[in-house]
Prior knowledge:
The structure holds 2 protein chains of 2 kinds.
Chain A: E1 7-18, E2 21-33, E3 38-42, H1 49-57, E4 65-74, E5 77-78, H2 84-90, E6 95-98, H3 102-105, H4 112-123, H5 128-141, H6 158-170, E7 176-180, H7 188-205, E8 208-213, H8 216-222, E9 225-230, E10 233-239, H9 240-245, H10 250-257, H11 297-301, E11 307-308, E12 314-315
Parallel strand pairs in A: 3-8, 3-9, 6-7, 7-8
Antiparallel strand pairs in A: 1-2, 1-4, 4-5, 9-10, 10-12, 11-12
Chain B: H1 2-28, H2 34-39, H3 45-54, H4 60-73, H5 87-122, H6 127-141, H7 144-158, H8 171-200, H9 203-210, H10 215-242, H11 247-252, H12 258-267, H13 271-299, H14 301-309, H15 311-318
Helix pairs in contact in B: 1-13, 5-6, 5-8, 5-10, 6-8, 7-8, 8-10, 9-10, 10-13, 12-13, 13-14, 14-15
Amino acid sequence: MAETSFLEVKNLVVEYTSDKQVIHAVNNASFSLKRGETLGLVGETGAGKTTIAKTILRILPDKAAKIKAGEIFFEGEDLLSISEEKMRTIRGNESAMIFQDPMTALNPTMKVGVQISEAILLHNNCSKQEGKKRAEEMLEKVGIPGQRFNDYPHQFSGGMKQRVVIAMALACNPVLLLSDEPTTALDVTIQAQVLDMMKDLKTEMETSMIMITHDLGIVAEVCDTVAVCYAGEIVEYGSVVEIFDQPMHPYTIGLFGSLPDMNGGRARLTPIKGMMPDPTNLPKGCFFQDRCPYASDECRKKHPDLNNAGGTHTVRCIRKGDEQNA
Amino acid sequence: MGKYIVKRILWLIPITLLVIVFVYTILFFAPVDRARAALGMGASEQAIAEFNEKNGLDKGYLGGLIIYLKNLLHGDFGVSYYTSVSVSKQILVRLPYTVKLAILATTFGVVIGLPLGILAATHQNSWLDSLTMALTMFFSAMPTFWFALILVMIFSLHFRWLPSVGYESWKNYVMPVVSIGLHVSAIIARQARASTLEVIRSDYVTTARAKGQKESKIISDHVLRNGSIPVITVAGGNLAAMMGGALLIEQIFTIPGIGTYLFSGIASLDIPVVLGCVTMLSVFHGLIIVLVDIIYTFVDPRMKVAIIQNSAKKKILRGGETT
């Protein structure tokens, strides 16, 4: 841990307000990322993964969402306390986001090339021609002929659109890339292509990345560290090797249990029973208590802290490493 | 694209024919003795027979229709039963007033309504939004003729700034345009607000934000174009409807447009007058809808594909058409 982390999220709390109800979307999330590394944010729908990414870019919906507490240090600066103008120079420039659904992430009435050069022109002092040239280069980079600069999104397939979205995010060589389930909306065959391309581009541009996904296969392939999210908090955190070799939190273990085994070891998948707790009414004690096969009285009384479990591995469970062979 | 436009325009012919047949049928079977209405109760049998022969009323339903259509083919709209004045001449004289009023009022509506609606949407739930919504609610619910009369009371009777009747000077058009235009602008503002709100919440606006784009540029570059599509529908529908003349407004300000003419024709069941106006109206209506569809393809590139390849798809994309 000689390198200092260049992104550090500390005790982040984000709430949404809807119909006077408070939705606890992110609860005390902390993690850090080193330059060039990839962190996987894993968890089921509604675990607060996307909210965390949007908070880092400060693009949460103004009125509905509220950042209640926490700090986000990006290259030494607290992103949550800088001005909006300053933030705009970071967005799309040093830090960019790839969105989940390429079908809706592109403006249907704007040429794709213009959408890519928009970011280039915003953050670089260059002429329109220069911006166009660089946008064409970006298209080529993601495997789309530069002549398609003048085409509209509806003239592209889903996979091609996602490439455009990626080209858009990478247009200004960001040092931090937030990928929000970049392959979820795509066909399995296209998924692999897009993922490979992202990996190559990331290495080429030396970008750090936060990969939001619920696909553990993607995590194994592209991530260095993993943060498992549950009900807006991080329940397990560690390197890919640590998490995959020794998952400790019952939720993480459950996630692995619901994966198909290619070696035919199991006949049936074991889903995690039950639902995530209502984010407007989180239980006292551990958030996973209702679905946990090991829940005890203590779990219902006290909210567990993140405990160290050796190395960089931390886990939010009172059982910690007791049953590592589970 | 050109082929498509020609096809759409050719389609207007059967549609207009159908409209003519419908309207003719209704008017023909209306229980009125036109000859006696025109010549007076004391008219002689011979005068009545002459009247009926002159106007083709003795040929029966089908005969009359065929004669009318035959004349129409030569550009002859016939003459009024009662005044014997050529209908086509009357329409040509009156059309400019109606077109002027329709275009001015619709332009007024868009120029006032569109920015107001966008402003209300970008300041959603603020006092500005509430005020705009309250005003537009009032102006869209309020009948235009009532507002026109209020304007006459204030600006003609009290201040004596504007003339209440006539059609010569631009001053004559201020009150008619404002009274219709405010109503149109209220409807357009509400539509613009709703569609802008929808676009603002869309993913590609978040994408633009994530690029570091300024809020003002997001509105002008990303929101305006996408949000204006339903507004074009409303504005186009309004313009088309107004081609039939703003009946009451033309009456109040005595503007000799199509509206007053059509109204007098309907009141006296004067078949050539009504048919002439309706034919003209349906042709204009059709042309404006074609025009609106062409504008769509410039605003939204997806429309081009949708409109040319599949007219069924077009209806879905355009959404419910409101006039």
